[in-house]
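Exercise 7. Predict the joint structure of the components listed below.
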Amino acid sequence: MKIDFTHHQSAHCENGVVSNLMSYNGFKISEPMVFGIGSGLLFCYIPFLMVNHAPAITYRAMPGFIFKRFAKRTGIKIKREKFSSKSTAQARLDENLSRDNPVGLQVGVYGLLYFPDEYRFHFNAHNLVVYGKEDNTYLISDPVMENVTSLTAKQLEKVRFAKGAFAPKGHMYYPIAFPEELQLEKAIVKGIKHTCRDMLAPVPFVGAKGIRTVAKLIRKWPKKKGVKVANHYLGQVVRMQEEIGTGGGGFRYIYAAFLQESSKILKNERLSELSKEMTEIGDLWRDFALDASRIYKNRSAQDNAYNKVADQLHIIGDKEEAFFKKLKKAI
Amino acid sequence: MKTNEVPQDKSHLESVSKEVYYAVDENGDYKKTLSSGWDVKTIALENALEEIERRVEEAKIRVHENKTSPIEYYMELHKMDLTVLSSYVGMWQWRVKRHFKPSVFKKLSSKVLQKYADVFEISMEELQHISS
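Solution:
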């Protein structure tokens, strides 16, 4: 069986799954809209947590939060299921497919064999849509891929029951009830307010303050950790910021696209100006990544090179603080 | 970023898929634009992979020097750390760590060994004797 489902590629998996499932159900909504309403934008440095042997930094909300907030703010009901039994998990999936209902799944990336080896890490918060089953093979729409793909029943079971942080436990979800018409205006305002609150949070690890905290840390890395480790850490920061799924510039461009679209919906010209400003901030993030890459490419670690990228990051922190204060007023 | 500035460098992903960027066109409107890759992040990825390779090689040497058990080697080979491995085998981290000791590893029951072999998808033979 194969459900008549249209695959649209997106930058980020979670927005993409939501946007694709919504359009299957007759609601056209863009990826940036999902991201913005779901308050996806963030900056957070998580002290003490190490990912790939480097400090954990994230540029977006926790996995699952974007869809949850988006659904709540637009009045959509989602059904979510997790499973302890692998066979029940598969039976429930098959049941939905036979009812012509494509579903979203949370999966681990390590077992996704359609990705090149270089991209397979133990990251468990990836999302995809299953839209059919032929023989023993599931038809997969992975939003970050240009084209649809497939996984055998065995392969799919493995990624649904990947272990480690954010273990999916077979997590399956799909929308079950919709409002007659999507009221985006209020949802956009709520989404923006929430993001402003996050980015201006009076906590040293979060938002604009978090960015400046990381800038401070970067200055200390070469002395404290040695050249090799410092370079590895810096490389990880860039990966978190630019790796597939971010749309470039640590999600800042997706957010700028959201503000542009919102400006038309809310008929608020100020948001269009702020979209341009966010684009410029995104460009600064890209410049930061480029200069950081020069350091880890040459495998050298001159203190002043580290100080230079730290300065850049500090400026970005200041700019984002000013930006979100303005955005708060504009809405 | 403008649509014509979206990087089109080589990457490990390009043979499988291009990726989506959001960029502004000549009218200032945001458009989804495809990118084949960006050197800045390809280098970061390659460095991270090299670091993993180095860890695997180091673990292998330590197995041969009888300083650790093959479990640590296979853990590194599968890009895992202690947290990930212990949740896959369903044992406490301190227990898995203890199994890194060659003396403890030698005395492990075949039931426990099988758990590790299943996670790494290898035979018991391969688990006990890593290739040099």
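Discussion. Chain A has two domains: 13-37+77-177, 184-330.
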